[in-house]
Each structure stands twice: as structure tokens, then as C-alpha cells.
């Protein structure tokens, strides 16, 4: 993600007159800022390859010998990491699909064919995000307990879907309103049905937007800790909760925790890199608005 | 890989996820039947090394012997406390067994959140309750006289010091030092080796951090949080004297970054040779004497320093309790009986090494030649520290509630943590001890007031 953004930054060197002198400095600045953002991640990866004793030294031992001990512990140590990883994958993928399925028609009805008072509707969507999440925690816990849904991944899927829906609607709306009206008019003049217009005219234009929205929803669900920690136990435990289990108040854990954190952030990194070109378009599409 | 190929793989994976989830599965963890499996129990426990060892040994031993599957949730200490209190206060019944300390057990017992174990203990003669060290049993027995927990491993506190460093200065550590002697030694060894502080003492805020050692210091200086009639005594001269002594000592000869140093930081300091002495939990000795420890064999262990009392060590035990709402109490007991047994200690000793045995709970551990061979340096001082701890009478005056390094009331976690923040500020030099304790007295008095009115009304 970060590298993606840094790469787009040189594009913003807007003043052509100063281009010769300002160019290198601005690029340098962009690189420095980019590196600052990446540094904690690099540090985490480096630490994950150190032994526990080296990871705990102060000042930090940068050139300490490398070892795979942390990863070995993660995969074959106490508990198997696969159930939490699969739970996170289930919750993130399904909730993201649901969000896309619901937010696309909603966004269509708010931009291309706006409903009456569409600004109010849009604001209403956003207002649901204004309540602090933690304020709803206790009622939700009691609800889950009474309905027997504690420790059930489907409960998390429903919550993640509803949590991400407002953001997705807003993002999708801004992407959909980028679609030139002329294109839609041309399509309808050619006699294309709504389904055909959606599939062949709108979809290709807003694909980067859909990718960006999906990635953000995926990241939010993947990283969600508060609900997962309170509402799951042994069956539906997700990876962020599993990650916290590496922290101990007795003994050293930093290297193992870094290894675990790296493995857990891999799916998001992979998704980010896979969608990189789409994302650059998608994110700048939104930001130009 | 081509783009179409990637897409196909993604679609297939998503379809598989959907198919499995739609089949009514609540998640991928636990046993395949979900958490309702008859022959499985769910255990919620703190992430300490002894628990991780237990997690690794359970399937090949306990499950193989009994056919009972055990699903663990492991969380860091603060998180596990939150989760346990949430789970047990609502009696959600998701977990059958939880690791609780002797702080929570009498309190939870009063609220009837955990089940009494006396019947199970009586029926399970192989468990041999008489082998459990008496102070442990005492601290896990609630006011109604029933036993509510079995210790997994226990600890007291003692003073650890670098024998080689003291020898080099020609200093002899007394077997039962006083705090003044410890302060003098700290002054003499401070900085004698590059980067080595005289002593490491916890300064990190938290009722279980700085106030674990500090409350034992207060006890032996003759102070107490509350007298037996529930009057707050935090600004009393003894409490003040003890806190001033502690703060002065750690500021003058303590570790770098003392206001943030807890158990882990001090352990690192000692392992890395950044401190010559350390007053803390007896359980630290296992790590200090581990095979890969650079200070193995260099550490001496003596009783907790005293002033006015005979002994001053604390008492703490991570223990197992069964949730009252559990529907699998019999299986839960089988698990506890196995995990806290002498046989489990022998299993750990044989497979993982005797230094990793969850010790400090059974008298037989300290008669076991295998254990003594490995732990000779600290076994004696540890057993002595635990056996001489008296959770009902830890100071010079009668107390209104159980507890040595804490007051066993639910309000103490908040009270202790808030006051510890002031004390930590005093260690950082941002506040005087007088000011810190004046504020502490106000908070303690609020708590005491509630108990006074309850007793009168």
C-alpha cells in the first residue's frame, strides 16, 4: 500500500517551472516519507527472523544472526494457526462479497439514477458510523448470548458487512459518478438494457473503484479485533485475536510475535500487490473528486 | 500465473469458503463438531510459558488417556482477565475451565460464578490434596470454607542477586536480609560493572505490577491499605515510609527506565547483566537458570527482605476453576486433576526438562531428586518463601480481607492501578511520595467507606 502511494507522489510535482531544481528534492522527500512509513514493517520482518534473545536487546541488534525459529514456533508451536486464518478468511471474503453486492445497487441509486433526497440518504448511511463501536458492544454481546450466536463466524460476517457498508456505499458512489453521462446516453440510445449497461458500460469504467472498495473492506474485516475478541471463543477465533495470544507477561515473545504478525498480514499484502494497478487508478479516481 | 488463472483460483477458493460455511459450520476452530462436542472441553487461559507447555502436551497425553479433547484460548494477562470476567459474570458457559489467580477465586466464589471443588477432590484420591502446599489451599478457599480452585503453579517473592558481582566487591549477602541491608548493598554495587544498576524493582503502573512488590514492602514496614475496621491507611506514616524507601531506592540505584519497568523488563535486565539484584517473583528463577541463560549459575537467592515482620514474600498462584454454568463439570475436573497433578509435573520434567515444571504448589515437588538436581539453586528458597506466606495475616495488624500483595476485594484492581500511577509518577520524579499517597488515601477512603457502610448497615 505504502509503496503504491509513494510511487504516485512524484506525479504531484505540479509546478513545471521549478521542475529542474525541485524534482530531485521532492522525489527525495517522497522517498524519505515512504521509507518512514515502511520502516516499522521492515523492522517487524527483520525482527521475525531474529532469535528471541536478540529481538529483546536494547539497543536493537540489527545484524544479529537470522533464524526461522519464530516461524517454526508459529506453525508448529502451541496451537495451530490454520483455524484462525481460515476464520479470518471466511469472515473477510464473505463479508466483502456481501458488501459489494449490496453497495453497488445502492450507489447506483445515489449517483447515476439518484433517488429523491439522495443527499439525505447518503448522510443517513454515514450517520450509522458516528456511534462509537464500543458503545454497541455490550448490547451486541448480550444479543449474541441470548440467540446462541456467541463464537459463531456468521455473526462476525453480519457485523463486518454492516460496518463496512456505509463506507463502501460512499466510495462506490463517488466512483460511479465518474461515469460520463454521455456514455450512458449512448448505451441507452443503442438500446442496451439495464443489465447490459451495468455489465458492459459501467463495470469496466468503475472496476478500479470496485477493486479499491473491496480491498478496503477486506482489510477492515481482516484486521478487526474488538468484536472478534469479545464475541468469539475457540471455534470462530480470528487471526487478530490469535495474534494477541503471542503476547505474554512472562518471558520473551517479540520475535515470535513479529513472525506471526508478518504471516497474518501476508494475505492483505498479497491482495494489495495483486490489485496494485487497479488501486492506483481507483484511489486517484476517488481523490480527484 | 495468468490473470484468468488467478481469477479462477480466487473464485474457486471463495466458493469453497462459502460452501463450507453455509453447511452450518460456526467456524474452523475447536473440534469438528463445534464447541458442543460431548467429549470436549473449552479452556481459557493466560499466555504464560507454563500454559503453553500444557497446551503442547495435552493432546498426546490427556486426550489420548481420557478421550477428552481440549480446546484452548490463550490470551495475554490483561486481556484474559477482561475476557474471563465478561464470560463468568454473564455465565455465558462458553468455557468450562479458566485460569484464575488466587486474587479472583475468592471473589468469584462469593458471586457463585465458579463451582466448589470439594466433592471432586474427595472422590479423586489420586489427586492428593494434602500434597498441595497449605498456604495455596488457604488462598484458594473462599470465606464459606469451600475450595474453589486448584493451583497450576505458584510463586512467592524473594531477592535474587549476582553472586559474582557481590563477591567481587567482597560483600556477603545475609540469608535473611533487611531492606536497609539491601539498600546498602545496592549502593555499593551500583555501576561497579558498566551499565549495571544496583537493583531492579518494578515501577510500571498496575496493581499487579509496581504494587505487587511494593505492598509487601509496605506490609513489612508495618503499613497496610486498610485496617480491620475498613479505615484507609494509605497516608499513614508506615505506608509513607515504605513507599518513600522504595521510590528513593529505585531512583538512586535502580534500573534505567524504572517507571516503565515491570516483571519482563527486570527479567531482561538481569539476564543481560544490567542489574545486580532483583526483588521479584520466585518463578523468575526458572528462566534465569534455564540452559541458554547467560547468568545461569551466577544468581543467589535469599528470602524477601524484611523490616518488622518475620517474612515478607507474597503468594500468587495461577489456578484452575470451573465455571458454574459449565455443563461438562466432570470432564473439566478430569482436566484440572491431570494438569495440577504430580504426574503432570513428572511428564514435563521428563519431556521438556525439569526447569520448566510448573512448580510451587506441591510438597512432593521439593522432595523429587530429579527436580532438586535441576533447581537446587532456588528450590529451597522458593519452597520456604511459599510455605512462610500467610495470606490471612501478612503484616503486623489484623486485616479485613484476604491477600498479601493485594487486598482481595473487587475494587482493588482499580484502586491499586490508580494509586500505582501516582507512585510511578513519583518514581519518574514528577510527583512527591506525599502527594501521591495523599491522592491514594482519598481513593482508598472511597472504597473503605462502601465497606464500612455495608458492615454498619
TrEMBL record, chain A:
Pfam families: BPD_transp_1
Organism superkingdom: Bacteria
GO terms classed as biological process: transmembrane transport
Residues annotated as domain ABC transmembrane type-1: 85-275
Membrane topology: Multi-pass membrane protein
Chief place of localization: membrane
Cell compartment(s), UniProt: Cell membrane
Transmembrane segments: 25-46, 89-110, 122-141, 153-176, 197-222, 253-275
Lineage start: Bacteria, Bacillati, Actinomycetota, Actinomycetes, Micromonosporales
Protein name: Mannitol ABC transporter permease
Family: Belongs to the binding-protein-dependent transport system permease family.
Any one of the GO CC terms: plasma membrane
Keyword annotations from UniProtKB, A to Z: Cell membrane, Membrane, Transmembrane, Transmembrane helix, Transport
PROSITE patterns from the UniProt entry: ABC_TM1
From TrEMBL, chain B:
Transmembrane segments annotated in the record for this chain: none
Keyword Signal among record annotations: yes
Organism, as annotated: Actinoplanes auranticolor
Protein name as catalogued: Sugar ABC transporter substrate-binding protein
UniProtKB keywords: Signal
Pfam families the record matches: SBP_bac_1 (PF01547)
Cleavable signal peptide: 1-26
